[in-house]
Amino acid sequence: MKNFVSILTLIGVLFILSACSEDEPDLIVTSFTDELQEPIEYFEQLHDVKVDLQIIPTENYVNTLRPALESGSGAPDVFTGEIVYLKDWIEQDYWENLSQEPYNVDEWRDDYMEYVWDLGINSNGEVRAVSWQTTPGGIYYRRSIAQEVLGTDDPEQIGQMFSTMEGLMEVGENMKQHNYRLFPDEGSIAPYTNGANPQPWVNENDELVMTEERLAYFDYAKELREKQYTALAPAWSPAWYASFTGPISYNVGWDEIDEDADQSDQTEVFAVSLPTWGLHSVLKEEAQETAGDWAVTNGPTPYFQGGTWIGMYKDSENKDLAFEFIKMLVNDQEFLTEWVMETGDVLSYYPVMEEVAADYADEFLGGQNHYDFFIERAEEIDASTVTRYDQQIDELFGTQVGAYVEGNLTKEEAIEEFYSQVVNAYPNIVVPE
Amino acid sequence: MKKGNHQAYLFIAPFVIVFLIFNIYPIFLTFYYSLTDYTGMGGIENARFIGVDNYIRLFSDRYFYQAFFNTIRIWGFNFIVQMLIALGLALLFSDIRLKLKGVGLFRALFYLPNIITIASVALLFSILLDWNHGGLNQMLLSLGFIDRPINWLNSPAYAQSAVALIGAWMWFGNSFIVLLAGISGISKDFYEAALIDGANWWQSFKFITIPQLKPILLYVLITSIIGGLQIFDLPMLLTDGNGSPQGALNTMVLYLYNQAFKYNNFGYGATIAYGLFFITVIFSAITFRTMYRKQV
Hints:
The complex is a heterodimer.
Chain A: H1 2-21, E1 27-31, H2 37-47, E2 51-55, H3 58-71, E3 78-82, H4 83-91, H5 114-119, E4 137-142, H6 143-150, H7 155-161, H8 165-177, E5 180-181, H9 191-194, H10 212-226, H11 238-242, E6 248-249, H12 261-264, E7 266-269, E8 271-275, H13 276-286, E9 294-297, E10 308-312, H14 319-331, H15 333-343, H16 350-357, H17 370-379, H18 390-405, H19 411-425
Parallel strand pairs in A: 1-2, 1-3, 5-7
Antiparallel strand pairs in A: 3-10, 4-8, 4-9, 6-7
Helix pairs in contact in A: 10-18, 15-16, 18-19
Chain B: H1 7-33, H2 53-59, H3 62-94, H4 103-115, H5 118-129, H6 135-143, H7 156-184, H8 188-196, H9 201-229, H10 233-238, H11 252-262, H12 266-291
Helix pairs in contact in B: 1-12, 3-7, 3-9, 3-11, 4-7, 7-9, 9-12, 11-12
């Protein structure tokens, strides 16, 4: 017992000592990835300060950070936000109004892609958050497979084939003939259905907007499944990741097994739909074995996915330093050039992008200049369709499309269930009859 | 005689203060939330007070009923399997006729699944159960038990069974330890006397073990009900987090979580929490009643 008490005392003393001796950071930054680690090190050297990066995993980010922002205790000086809840957060008193003195960020406006800039503005016309990146999407594909099946690996020509849904399906058939699969899963086609007629999920009267194009997702997804153009590897599953590096198991023991038995249990995936960040945070991370064999091109319609915005906490005690950090991350030509060279991230900041895009070749993409491609795609983005509901409604919709594709529900049942779930999640939304 | 020993209050003060701040206060605050349309943003003071609207909605919410029955089904199946294994093993290892060795080792082995992080368990099983690339189907196919892969996590019955069985696998070791301790606590004299009187195994089990084990069984049952009604992590992680397939894994706490934290219906989430609270109370009361019926 005596020992126990003394150990306890010792632990207590050590704890107090360690708490005292630790340097207080000059700035606390909270984000959901370690992406900001390097910028922070750069910033620390530049200003000779200590910055603490607190990382909260994406799944818990909102629910951990929001109470701190609501109550004001334990709130960081600078924090990031994803497009998923950006619309909610800019309307709250979380981020400082950057349009006012002494920040006047409105002066920067012309240097940025319009949609990215506009998404950080709240209903009072105040800029609450800014972003350094742009996130248009495209279709990444394997050059060697393209060469073998389609006779070319040129992004321009492949883009031509991918420019319509029919073209996409044609390539899918072609791939299947050679025991390749067009996409890992049916979700890869989702961006191009709403993309054909971009509408917000919920309009200003709180009505759910269902379009023919959105409904077409049901049919296209079913077509992909029935014609076996996908490898049945759902996005973010282990099989999905594995599909980027080589053959994966497929069609084990199905009825319709091809006569050629040794071909039927493995297949290789040709392409996947991913936004800009998919290149450095998914493919370059997970597909080292196939580096250099990739290229990126357009799908049938433009789309974009994700994006990180940053701002400073409205009651931060280190606002000057906090703003310096944001300025560096978003508006510092020297730093951003270095950042781009290192990560391959695509920026919404024209001065750097124009310079870099003029002459660039990405090794992973077989020497392709993806900046040129993505900047062009970014120009086509229409962000007026973004609503605060998007992520959740997309998810609910995707689930029902999945149930239809699996044959659990008819299309009518699935749509009905989708409407019912939307109302259950958001009772204020009016769904079509 | 002294009027009262006031120092005692000082000693219980730390617990009471912590309990009041971190348990009682949130419980009342949650009740207040449940009477508002609070979204979790913009402060509770700006939320609209809507009286019992949320409770009226709860009573007619088919997703809540679905969640309730899913939870009961998953818990019930899980509990039966878990108890059969745990009780069987506890009897085996405590049997005075068999005198099995290595109880300590097996106790540790059986308990192992319980110390794996649930997130890892979910990941592990989602890989094993993957219908097209997963190990289970490949094994069953190569052994010839099935001739086409089964889409486990796409079928409501299979998905619920999977969650129940994974739960049983994780928790049987825990129940085993508790039951074994309970059986070891029963005086050997009873069994020896029964042996001498010529009682067979079934008779000594039925007339000695079960009655003597009643308080322990009650404890296991009630903690299992309380834990089982709160099942959340496996259903959340095994499929899409929305209760797929077809709402089969939509459990009460998952529903609460999605309403409050995904759809920002804090007020309604709080209402679900109260619904869950009353259901737990009712179930615990029923269990208590039935287990102690004869004594009362």
